[in-house]
Structures are given as C-alpha cells and as structure tokens.
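Progress against Task 2.4 (sequence-to-structure conversion) is shown through the following example record, which the project officer requested during the mid-term review.
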Amino acid sequence: MDDTSRARGSWKKAAILGLIILVIVAGTQILDLQQLAARENELRQIQRYHPVFAYVAAFLAYVIVAGLSLPGATLVTLAIGWYFKFVRGVILVSFASTTGATVAFLLSRYLFRQPIQQRFAAQYETFNRSFEREGAYYLLALRLIPAVPFFVINVVMGLTRIRVWTYWWVSQLGMLAATIVYTYAGSQIPDLQTLADQGLLAAFTGKQLMQISLAFTLLGAIPLVLRVFRKKLGN
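Structure tokens generated for the chain above:
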C-alpha cells in the first residue's frame, strides 16, 4: 500500500470516528426517558395507528444504541418491553441487539484490527490461533455474564478472526436469556414515567438485580464446562 492510499484510509477512519462521536452525543440527548415519558400518549397513538413505523423506528433506535454503545441499553430494553409487551418485545430486542452488536464488531474490525495487528504481530497471531479453537465457547460465556460490558465484548471480538456469521448466532443465543428477563420485567411496568423516575428499580429491587447477576454468571460457566467435557470426550 502506497503513502497516498494509507493517508486516504486514515482520513476515512478519522471521519467515521468523528461521525460516531457526533451520533453518540446526539443519541444521548434524543434517548431521554423523561422526554419520552412526557409524550407517552403520543407514543401509544403511533403504535395504534402506525404499527409498522413503530416497530421499524424502535428497531433502528436499538441498533444505534447497541452499535455505538450508547448508555442506557438496559433501560431501552425495559422501555421496549413496556411498549410492545413481552413476546413482540423479545423478538425485536433479540434481533436489534444482535444487529447492533455486529455493527460494533465490524466497526472495531475496520478501525482497530490492522494497527493492533501491526503493532503486536507475534502476540496477535498467538492469541488468534488459540481463539480460533475455542472462540465460540468464550464468546458465549462472555455474553451470558452481565459483569462483562457489552461494548468491550464487541470491540475485542472485532480484533479477532472470528467469522461474522459465528459472531452473529453465538451473540444471538448468548444474549437471549438477558433479553427475556429484562423485556418481561419491562412489560410489567405500568407506565413510562415510572421507568423514567425509578430506572432499574422500577422493574427490580437491588436484591433481585444481585440475584439475576449471580444467575447469569453461573450460566456463563456452562459453555466453559461443556468445552472441558468435549475435550475429555475427544481424548
């Protein structure tokens, strides 16, 4: 690659990063639950008379939240559960969150993988050889553990050589349990103002949140246990 092409690629990446920052700043202003709660009746009218628009808008909004790692994804999941109720909310959040995660994954791969690969060539190659053997198990375990930040998984996985399709279906499966729990909790919230005022406490007590986190952590150990059994059976 000549210097001109390299410079053009650097400017393109810088422009994408700048655009992402602008969208993040704008998104934090738009996704204000207090403002949405003040327009609760209007939102219900849109859902009643323009259901397709409501689904598409909610899907795209969630993809942006997940893809750009905007704060408040859990609250958005609760809000979608309140708005669309349980079954439809689970379907929407499941596919939107996986789509957003894949967008973040691809952005990380495009923006960061090449410079990191060049800077840490030996370590990068060793890491990828190990990850290619057991990567799907590790990804599934990470998706099931709520203590691991969502955006960290997306960015780190973008640096690996895991296939996009593998990343998609493992993420879809791994995030489904949390999607079901939070969407169901959102469907039980009486109104959006309660969620805006109380946050997670509108759906869970502090004790319940601790119990859920512990349950997901234990659930996250299952893929690693299965990996050990698979190795033993193979031997």
